[in-house]
Amino acid sequence: MSGTLRRIYRGETNIDFIGRRKLWFVGSALVLALCVVALLTRGLNYGIEFQGGVQIQAAISEDGPLGDASELDVIAEVRSALESIGAEGAQIQVATEDGGRSVLVKTKEVADPQLQQRVVSIVSRAVGATPEDTNSQRIGSEWGGEITGKALRALLIFFVVVFLFITWRFEVKMAVASLIALVHDLIITAGVYSVVGFEVTPSTVIAILTILGYSLYDTVVVFDKVEENTALYATSGRMTYRDAANLALNQVFMRSLNTSLSTLLPVAALLFVGAGLLGASTLKDLALALFVGLMVGSYSSVFIATPVLSLWKEGEQRFRNLEERKRRESLRAAPQPVPSPAGAALTGDGGDAGKPVARSRAATSRPPSRTRAGSKKVKRRKRR
Fold this sequence. Notes:
This protein has 384 residues and is an alpha+beta fold. It has 13 helices and 6 strands. The protein is elongated, with a radius of gyration of 37 Å.
């Protein structure tokens, strides 16, 4: 096991990434199907920035009931007070500024103005704030729709820019393969959000755009090595396109793995320690998208983008001809079985029955040719 890890670390792997692409494609297809089903059945839990709601900010009085309470206790107390009137699913966080603390509460949109005022009163009473120290504002669903539209436009512009850049730097087929990998990462990240039920906030959108950029970076690194190897080996006829791309993946695999691990460790600390153990719930939306997206992006750049590209490039006529020529050369180089000579003696034993008996060198060797002097003596005898 240690020897295998040492070879992986040194980049001495010989994994058949391209030959096993059907396995990678089937695994990704199953995960994508599960994510699509989750998105269609459960949907996404949009925050008030997308659906509309009420935002309340109240100062925590030092002389109030929560003046000496910790942030976790303040959040738990306010959440319990809101749930008592049916306002569930509120997003609560504690902020510290100018030496004082305040609580920020975001709830879903309340149609009844009286109920909205009651929610404000419950929050201010829980933290011991006065009406002057409490601010509330209603966020309409129209504003949320505008934010959603901007997010979709930003995503579309990102895809267009990515396509144009990779087409200019490499080729169209690589651009399409990279977009397939990006859509793969986006669907899986959204599916995980749907399964766990985390809120989709502007922080989530920012995190998704971040991980798409990271996935693109990893894909470009792999494609650069693939282009170098195919120009060096496949174009010159020394290797097929599949073998050259497979060699490139083995050469950059350790680099991709190191980059992914060094990026995932701080994000994992943000998600499991910051949001999980310390209770910083506002971090979980950003951290989950980053964590899932980084893992899926690292996977797709090696196991999706390049195998899709290789499958497409192998269909080109020049690489088909090269693969056919390599196949014929391998057949000619293969050792051919030597046929047994006709009339070879066979043994009568059961164990060696049917096998030709090797003839001795004396029996199989040709008789020596006559010398010139011997031939002259024979001619003289005939004359006499």
